[in-house]
Amino acid sequence: MSKKPGQRVVLVGAGRMGADMALAFAKGGWHCSVVETATANLERAKSYWQAETHRLGWDQALTRLSCHSDLVDVEWGSVDLVIEVIPENLALKHSLLASIDELANDNTVIATNTSSLRITEVTSVLKDPQRAIGMHFGVPAHILPAVEVTRGNSTSDLTLDTVLEWLESLGKVPVVVQRDIPGQIINRLQHAMYREIYHLIDEGIATPRDIDRAVRFGFGLKYSVVGPVASRDIHGLPVHLAVSSQLYPTLHNDPAPPKILSKLVEEGHKGVLTGQGFYSWPPETCSERMQQFALLMEEQVKRIRKLGEPMDF
Predict the structure, then answer these.
(1) Separation between Cα atoms, residue 207 and residue 312, nearest integer Å
(2) Which of 5, 10, 220, 244 has the CB geometry, 3.0–4.6 Å to 215, for a possible disulfide?
(3) pTM surpassing 0.85?
């Protein structure tokens, strides 16, 4: 396996995550083959790429994208990296990775984009687990800089170093997860917060709107400039210790799913997809609101990069 940045990637799965990841690689100069068996998903991805590359001025990226309906249609001999981006179903992932293992050359890095399963468990069907790794992109993957890179129990140092080099060449900010745990870093942190958020809503302590305001215009605003750990140094560790000793015993720690979330899902509310979640998303304004969301995120990333991010203290 060469440490030279590769130029060919295969993404298996053309859902929203896979489609965005394809844009990230194509923008970075990689030739990207996307494999998707569902015709509707593939056609939706093609339309999305046309619109998004035009909007962002990434016209050259579009020329580096190709689509396939079957794994065997890919020219595997020159592939440096393959990433599975299919649903969180272990049996499905095992079946797919076993097929990839038979087709890919010995030097191809094989990655999973799982957001909750253990990397070692997902990639256990591979003959050579040293070349297996986790690469978990955020949403939208072509805009957010952070990518979690998780070592499986057998991932080699060379595989890790190679993937880190590739991601940095794409302008990404790799976050290394040194031990294979469910959810990696970002989802574990988010869901620890979400458990408390749902509890506050269930108990009538705060509305979804006020919780969103507290995060957006409170601590969330500063975390794009300085991370939560460094911020504790800035605010003072004795104060943090005193507050934690009083607060931690009162935090919600029930392992059961939150009532409000369960109720919404049982009633068929999925959020933007169905027009109703914690908030109402009427079709006549939803597209405009989602576009505004994307534009604000892009502007935020641009501002951070101007500051010389990542700022490591």
Answers:
(1) 35
(2) 220
(3) yes
